[in-house]
Write a structure and sequence with these properties.
This protein starts with a helix and ends with a helix. It has one domain: Serine Threonine Protein Phosphatase 5, Tetratricopeptide repeat (Alpha Horseshoe). The longest helix has 18 residues. Helices cover about 70% and strands about 0% of the residues. The chain has about 425 residues and is mostly helical.
């Protein structure tokens, strides 16, 4: 299951993080008419009542919460059991991705910490630690761990799949192709072929990607709901590359039928709806998922599209969340920060600077798109020269990116 979760993030959508809810609670009390409020979120917030809600937690009745509790109990009874630790850590990571809370990555890291101090650590622990580092966008450290693990166990399919994910996120497509081949050779044939199908959607072969993924989807009824949701999500994105909006939406909806609370899929579908000019549907879709920073950003973007009178308050709340993450040392929201600066703070120069920094870390289609949007808004097409060259090299198809790139290239010629 972790393999599926890892690869589905290869599209480069926003990886998800924790929120300091006390900060947001304090900021919510500000008058919504304040356009540029001061920053009380830089100071600690103290609740004034025991009845004040600071953070919502998953209910104990949740099946996945029960599973984590059962595994935690089992590990407490047998703390030297690496297999149980591995299962618990993966359960934490998977749940954190689903609900958009990076705290669970920290829980997973604590579970395997004892094994990571061994010399050498077990390969399973190294791969799991690499997954955690990738989740935090500590890509260089994740890559180094994966290379060490594969040097010791070159048949480890999970390590190859995680490396494929990392290479796709960073735009290293030839390497990703080799990684996918290794997944096919040493692990699941279906996962390996899906890896290749996903990769093709980044290389100007979106139609071939749809054919491959559709074939896999035909076999999906006998597989898990998580696998089916993953394949449907990949098909949605491949159809977006082709500009086939009805098919893309059908696959997004199908994926959410299988895993209706998956924060990654919800955010991806919200972006689709925003692009289609349907912000009210975004508010309905994400009404129960405001705790996730990435989901909340889409809510704020929807409020902006609706010209909401409450928009200044929403913008401030989002700024407070970013500041809380910065204060905690979390710096893996580069793409989201660019979108915030560009579309909500209307500061194209800052957005471009953030986009340039983000491009050094990750180069998925959304990173490419937001870089070009920032360069276009800042009227600095020359700043996008390397990004345009990357686009030409990879031959990415995208009906939103392509006209934007054409306009920037034309401006470069006339300057």
């Amino acid at each position: 299951m972790d393999a599926i979760s890892a690869l589905r993030r290869a599209s480069g959508r926003a990886l998800l993080g924790a929120v300091l809810f006390a900060v947001v609670q304090a900021a919510s009390a500000l008058d919504s008419s304040m356009v540029s409020p001061p920053a009380p979120y830089r100071a600690p917030y103290l609740p004034t009542s025991d009845a004040e809600v600071l953070q919502q937690v998953p209910p104990a009745s949740d099946a996945k919460v029960r599973e984590m509790k059962t595994l935690r109990t089992a590990l407490d009874k047998a703390p030297a059991d690496l297999r149980t630790a591995d299962l618990l850590a993966r359960a934490y990571i998977g749940f954190g991705r689903e609900v958009g809370d990076a705290h669970y990555a920290g829980y997973a890291e604590a579970v395997i910490a004892a094994w990571m101090t061994r010399q050498p650590p077990p390969v399973e622990a190294q791969v799991l630690q690499a997954v955690i580092l990738q989740f935090r966008h500590q890509f260089a450290d994740a890559r180094a761990l994966l290379e060490k693990a594969l040097a010791r166990d070159p048949r480890n399919a999970q390590a190859w799949l995680t490396l494929a994910t990392l290479d796709m996120v960073q735009g290293r497509y030839p390497a990703a192709r080799d990684d996918c081949a290794q997944v096919t050779r040493h692990g699941s044939y279906v996962l390996g072929i899906a890896c290749v199908g996903n990769l093709r959607s980044y290389l100007g072969e979106a139609r071939q990607s749809v054919v491959i993924l559709t074939q896999i989807a035909g076999d999906a009824p006998r597989l898990s709901a998580s696998f089916k949701a993953w394949v449907e999500g990949l098909l949605a994105e491949a159809n977006e590359r082709l500009g086939d909006w009805p098919q893309a939406e059908a696959h997004y909806r199908k994926s959410l039928e299988y895993t209706p609370h998956d924060n990654f899929l919800l955010v991806a579908y919200a972006d689709f709806l925003l692009d289609r000019g349907r912000p009210q549907e975004v508010l309905t879709l994400l009404a129960d998922y405001r705790q996730s920073d990435t989901a909340f950003l889409r809510i704020v973007l929807a409020q902006a599209a609706l010209h909401s009178a409450d928009l200044p308050r929403y913008v401030f709340l989002m700024a407070a969340r970013f500041e809380a993450l910065r204060a905690r040392g979390s710096d893996y929201y580069g793409r989201e920060q660019v979108r915030f600066a560009l579309h909500l703070q209307h500061d194209p120069q800052s957005a471009l600077e953030l986009a340039q920094r983000n491009w050094e870390v990750q180069r998925a289609p959304w990173d490419l798109r937001i870089f070009l949007e920032a360069a276009d808004a800042a009227r600095k097409p020359q700043a996008a020269s390397d990004v345009l060259a990357f686009l030409s090299q990879t031959k990415l198809q995208d009906p939103i990116i392509e006209p934007l790139a054409k306009r920037l290239r034309a401006e470069l010629v006339t300057r």
